[in-house]
Amino acid sequence: MVVHESEPFNAETSVAALGEGSMTPTDAFYVRDHGPVPEIDPHDWRLRVHGLVERELSLSLTALREAFREREVIATLQCAGNRRAGLMAIHDIPGESPWGPGATGTAAWSGVALADVLDLAGAAPGAGHVGFEGADPAAEATAGERFGGSIPLDKARRPEVLLAWAMNGHPLPPVHGAPVRVVVPGYIGARSIKWLERIELRAQPWTGYFQHVAYRLLPPEGEAGPGAGMPLGLVALNSDVLAPVDGQVLTTGPVQVRGYAFAGGERYVARVDVSVDGGATWSQAELLDDLGPWAWRHWRTTVHLAPGSHEIIVRAWDSSAATQPDDEAGMWNPKGYVNNARPRVRIQVV
Ligand SMILES: Nc1nc2c(c(=O)[nH]1)N[C@H]1C(S)=C(S)[C@@H](COP(=O)(O)O)O[C@H]1N2
Ligand SMILES: [Mo]
Questions:
Q1: 199 has a pLDDT exceeding 90
Q2: Of 218, 265, 273, 307, whose CB has the highest number of CB atoms within 10 Å?
């Protein structure tokens, strides 16, 4: 992993580990923590469900496991700051980590459907959003505020949204949210709250720091503040190249170009195009393992290049016929979120 910060721990999956396959091994999966990993005894852990509900609940891990059907979903998590390094190269972003392409990964998550828990609690009239709160206080926010966020009730009722206790067939490791985390496929990673302790049905979206101040897209000249900019939720179509790497020197012969593409939201990756002539012509990459509607697609293609320097450009397309923006500079924003510009890799062929 590439470590950006040791306390709190923040590290991204290396390009080499991403390139090993479409499923990301747990020990290489990126970690994004805003505070220290809380110590939670799974026997004492309770999940409180309250707010605009017909019945308040307090559920132990055993109750969760026994009262509801276990489900598994393969889903890609992607941090809103994935690929921020590309934006920082244009103009500095103080106080934020220079995440490369590895603030994303795909795992098999198992647990119960949030929808089943919500059915038991019953949504009271006026409930429109489901808020989640973790056990970890974060230094960035007002003293004592824990990490949290919300999603619309309509999304919360979809079967793919999990309260997960396992990742890739093993209990969740502490850094990934043990004993139970939320997994919201298609949404920015920040809505997949780790170390979940509280679910609150609300009339309005979460007003805590991590949704009302942070994880919002500001205009280039904007300043962060409560309610400033637009809240990020659904992930935007993105892709990156895993091989060859920028600056690599290759010998003449066929060159395999590989990478990932993630559509986000409820869209899927429809096509990935690769250009080796500055975007004048494009060829289509082969889409690899289809892991279902909530996962990225790895892709690959082979190109032939004459000796000299070349720039490889990639553009993914999604099922809404949208493609990635051409220009990284045009995506710059003060917090460095949503860099989904077409990736470009410069290589030398000798
Ligand atoms: N409680 C809590 N949940 C959290 C966070 C956090 O700091 N605290 N970070 C969020 C962010 S920004 C992301 S991208 C994902 C990362 O999940 P991972 O560390 O398991 O990869 O967790 C989210 N859930
Ligand atoms: Mo994130």
A1: yes
A2: 273
